[in-house]
């Protein structure tokens, strides 16, 4: 099944970057039929709404896979973890939400809060895309 949002550059094969001058940057990219949301910088109370907005937009299109890549995240707060849980719980049947977290900054908070038991967590984007 092909899905596309004509008004959104991410769905026309381009990368979409959202950098409003805050501490975090969110980029949406297509990888085949999957959507990869890359977060850079801090994922905290200030940047979580931006990540939530991009996640919601991607989930509305019902991709088979949504990868949330935290590789470049330098700080993961509870507000950021709440966005990950919301994405997982709001995904439509047929959409797998996968999180990339391998560093101590991102993986350790997920382990301490036991979210690794609820979320599908992978060490690399490639492994998350492969499932």
From TrEMBL:
GO terms for molecular function: anti-sigma factor antagonist activity. It comes from the Bacteria. Residues 1-22 are annotated as: Disordered. The keyword Transmembrane helix applies. Gene3D superfamilies: STAS domain. Keywords: Membrane, Transmembrane, Transmembrane helix. It holds the Pfam family STAS. Residues 24-131 form the STAS domain. The chain crosses the membrane at residues 65-87. SUPFAM superfamilies: SpoIIaa-like (SSF52091). PANTHER family: ANTI-SIGMA FACTOR ANTAGONIST TM_1081-RELATED, ANTI-SIGMA FACTOR ANTAGONIST TM_1081-RELATED-RELATED. Belongs to the anti-sigma-factor antagonist family. This is Anti-sigma factor antagonist. It comes from Amycolatopsis sacchari.
